[in-house]
Protein 1
Amino acid sequence: MAKKWYHREGFKTRIIDALLIVFSVLFALFLNNWSESRKQHKKMMEIRENLLEEISTNLEMVKSWKDHHLYLGKRLDSLQMGKLPKIYEVLHKDRYQGSFALFKNQPLIEQLPNEAAWNGASATGIVSEMNFDEIILFSNCYNLQKEIIDVSIRRILDMFFDAEKMENMSTENLITQYKMSFHELISQEYALIEMYEKALAAIH
């Protein structure tokens, strides 16, 4: 009888030991998942703060671009309507010097917008933790930002520095090309500003 009791107690002990091991493993997994979740949440908050700072800075920069380009667009309108005869005369004689005078010897843009925060988020894969609408919104922002730099602004600069191409155009055609390029650039800047503001609202 004592032997049976001993076996029963031993069996209970083994069951308890097994349950303790299972519980310990599950608890360790829970702690590990909780720790990883906290790390991911902290990383996500850092990414969002970096995006907030980057997009806020880019927004102010593009607003400044837009104001400057609107001013240059109005000068082009005035030039085409014959309200800037001296500039027209210089442009007619010397495309390069005339373009400088038209743009008042000012750079088209003074600095480039940043994309380090977005590239960093994309490289770490943390972007996949965002909701789908946010991913689309941020992607559209940075894609349009890149298109403005790589296509629209480059088109104006290429025209400005391509002496042969400018010389082969009539003065009226050159002014028209500048106007079309600036109007497209300004419309893109308005669109990008709106996207930036939506992105900032999403981060908040």
Protein 2
Amino acid sequence: MAFNIVSSRYARSLFDLSLERNVLDRINSDMSLINTLCLENPILNIILKNPNINIGKKKNIVKDLLEKRVDSLTLSFILLLIDKRRVILLKEIANEFVGFCNKYKGIKVATLISANKIDELTKQRIIKLFEKQFNCTIKLEEKENPSLLGGFKIMIEDMIYDASILNQLNSLKKSFAKNIYEKGY
């Protein structure tokens, strides 16, 4: 819980500073890149989280890796996190920052989970439907889950819209379990 508060505060500070300097989109793309790096590169995570590795070495690694790929504000921010020994929160800070940007721009992230790949026309119809319902822009992330059998689930914030065959089968199963007819034979 305390890490969540700390990462949120750092993300809010970076968000406010990037707004003030009019580089919000650039820093947002940098934070998305950092989030991707943290997910795809476990060695980098181990290096950054290891307290036995010298702060100077960590800074040099980050500079070599990111200096030409990210904005100077992003690089300075990460170096500050290393100095303050908060770099272990980098992924959470990046996620929080992207969340602040999405909220500022009126974007909601929806996760579409389906049994199979969904065609572009269907995705566009789903996006338009939910954009109209939530009165905002929808950014769609896709995941595949063959256990759904067919149909799809959409998760937006704390709401789940379940139109999967698995859900329909479970509903039928529950209704058969509550059979109102007596077993006479």
